[in-house]
Fold this sequence. Notes:
InterPro entries: RmlC-like_jellyroll (IPR014710). The protein has 7 helices and 10 strands. The chain has helices at residues 3-12, 16-21, 110-118, 124-145, 149-160, 176-183, 187-199, and strands spanning 34-39, 44-45, 52-67, 72-79, 84-87, 95-109, 162-164, 167-170, 203-206, 209-213. The strands form 2 sheets. Strands 1, 2, 3, 4, 5 and 6 form a 6-stranded antiparallel beta sheet that branches. It has a 4-stranded antiparallel beta sheet with strand order 7-8-10-9. The chain is elongated, with a radius of gyration of 19 Å. The relative contact order is 0.15.
Amino acid sequence: MDFLQVHDLLIKKPNLLVSLLEMTELDTWHPDVCQFQKLKSYQSLNMDNAEKIIHVTQGVLLQQVNNPDICKISVNAIWSKDDVLFHNVFQQNQYEYLAIGDVEVAIFDARTVLDTLSKEPFFPDFLIEYNRRQQEEFFQFSYMLTKNIRERVLDVMKRFSKKHPDGYLVPKRVNSLLLSKCCQATPATIKKALLDLKHEKRIVKREQHLFIQD
């Protein structure tokens, strides 16, 4: 497998990078290779224009696009534990990152990592892992689509929320736009589902937050 093939696979399936690194002798604890950061809830991850690879080791990280010309921020992606994303590696961007709950990340120097991977022989283990992840993600996505929209909304909201003895406290930043990205539905459909859930008392207001009752 040559360098271009590695790049092609990593663009399509960036989470494979962790499996790839485990096959190398790269010292991922060296500060020139990787740095670790802990973020509090709603804290931004400040990134410069350098080429970086971000590995989410704990929590949920929102990737946002900021358009200063129209003062608009939109959610581009939601990353959770074990997800890997590229920052300014294959294209320059204006992404911002925001922690939902406590988040821990490992930030790799992208050039060092990719140069190391390009020199490694990749064995069938890599392709087996690739196929396993594909099947796993296909099942998760397909299973989600078997549920009605209200159940999808509840499942995703719980993923972002803090567990309490009698339910889940939902962060204020979990809105219809974010839920639409996760649930594969339009924001209008999500708003209708939220109204139905509130009418059924499955979601209530508590301490200025939405609360999902078990």
